[in-house]
């Protein structure tokens, strides 16, 4: 019996496993550090207190419970033994006939890893809950602060990185402060919140066309977000951000800038690009190991256009599906095919009622792009109940301007050590 | 302008504030360590992965956003200065004309506070998430464990304390292992999970009549829960529980036994009972400080029947309401009244389709008691959307046997320090 080992259950890994579900004579093992598949495109809504974590995450083993040929283990990979075709994890060693690596990427601080403490990224549920805690706590602390300088600092939110995550976070924070919090505070005016989006390059949303990126910029400014381009962050500390000579005092700094592919890539023979992605063959396999495939954010695939594909959900979904189909072909003694990405376009939402959309030559911004964004995200969200609950949360939040998950949840669960409110300035 | 200071926004504090909402010439300040009101009776469903935290919690300031005479501060109380009528907190000092103390209770380990690490209680959202993490992780670890003794230990869950919380947790864990997980694992049979409920006294649910308590016991045993009465826990460590000479090896131990009232009581002149509750006057005020009222789990009120009222939601709700009404009376130059508790009965659910109910002489067990339980809890749950979403989760979970929030969320949000899966046995 052939065995396929899938590392990671993001869009690529999950979609590959779905192809294998119920296939006879094939054993599939999925290994992930988490027990759930996370619908990453909506993670910023958890950070912005609009959705609960469980609404955008489903237990992996539950998705495949009906298929006995699929086994799921929660574990962490220690070593890829490519020459002997096995993977060593903290829950044992697994041999494989085919290996699909889909471990994604993590945030990267370009060598300034110490910045993480004061500028969390947004890749995991834990990080989203932490960002939510920091944002909500900043408003709570501002309400009790009498010193006006400190109050301004508490109400200043800096987002580093003008890609989709940064733009979506900025839009969501603006909505939170201008609408949701409008009447909830007595000693502060949440509308005077400063949200500053910092981008090192010449424009935000660099993956979109210049026209749409300008449009997004203008709309963010209408929402009260200051967009700062050509600004490189040189220091982040507990009180704010430096950009060369310029200094912004801010109690909350969020990181949406650098990304680096899973460090497992470094264990494999093969060329890595500047983002740590491994260069794959036209069929997404590795040059030296044709039985190893790499998909999603972990892979550098540039055979189609000469430029590497972006790290977005449609790429990961198509690659996962393609790899699984190719493996089934080979097992049926047919030749492998080459991967061809079908561009389904790009979307980014900018607060309430607004989004940008680019599908091939179609470039759309504004309300109708936002409607498309809504339907695409609901459609791809896994699980009937999740779709329904998220729709309900959105409808309610759209009509009432309220958010469904405004909870400040602390790290420490122990009663005796938990001092409730985090002390000011220390987070 | 008179000022009422309310400490704590549980059932008592919140219900008092509601009476004051919009009353002219009266300023109300609510201080709570959390930014939300928690619907505590459903907290065990968060621990059992059935509900998300945000579904049973609402931001306090949002409840009162329309009422400008009510201010909410997130803060921690350091000192009650009863003689000068002020309260010192980490967010400043607040003077008051009337003080309502409604800070509730916390778990208590009878001097064995070190047990907490290996046997978390269930009073806060953080604790519920931690219990959920431990329970789900035990199943994940059992799936990868080859040693059969270790496997048995991982699938053994001990709950200490046979009150409502312990019984409800036991029922929910049984449902999880027998139905929800039935087909999700390949290397374990979740139905062979051992759930052991330990009670030091002669019977579980001691607040209910003997007949119902026996009935609950029998139903729990039908669900596969072992009920052990007259057993006193003498030691809890990382591998299990001792009860005198007897030892149970268990990877997961949960604490639902002792409770102690807020330690703020010790700052006040007045008699405390064995649970740390302060003895109050017939109008719920303190003997030496008629302007200080104490309500809910923090108060010992025995003027009505000679025995102290139980620490249940209806008592807290009625006391909070009563205190606020009495203050308004006094401000209107009318005499204070004495508190009289109207017994609305008691309810506890025992897994799917079963509950016990006691209202005065009416004693009911089984399916219809469970239906009453459902409606009472939905009715009292705050917020239209929360009611609707919780109903939906319950309906879906009832029909599909699935649970909506099966996420293992870790403590550490930092990417670089988070090692994903917790190591076995160390939690």
Describe this protein's structure.
The structure is a homodimer of 427-residue chains. Chain A has helices at residues 11-20, 43-47, 60-63, 125-144, 148-154, 164-180, 210-222, 313-331, 367-380, 384-400; strands at residues 2-7, 26-32, 36-38, 57-59, 70-74, 77-81, 86-89, 92-95, 98-101, 105-108, 156-160, 194-198, 225-228, 235-237, 240-243, 246-249, 252-255, 258-261, 278-279, 292-294, 299-300, 346-349, 355-359, 362-366. Chain A has 427 residues and is α/β, with parallel strands linked by helices. In chain A, the strands form 8 sheets. Chain A has a 5-stranded parallel sheet, with helices on one face. The first copy, chain A, has 10 helices and 24 strands. In chain A, strand 6 and strand 7 (86-89) form a beta hairpin. Residues 416-427 of chain A have low confidence and may be disordered. The longest helix of chain A is centred in the N-terminal third of the chain and has 20 residues, at 125-144. At the A-B interface, strand 5, helix 4 and helix 10 of A face strand 5, helix 4 and helix 10 of B.
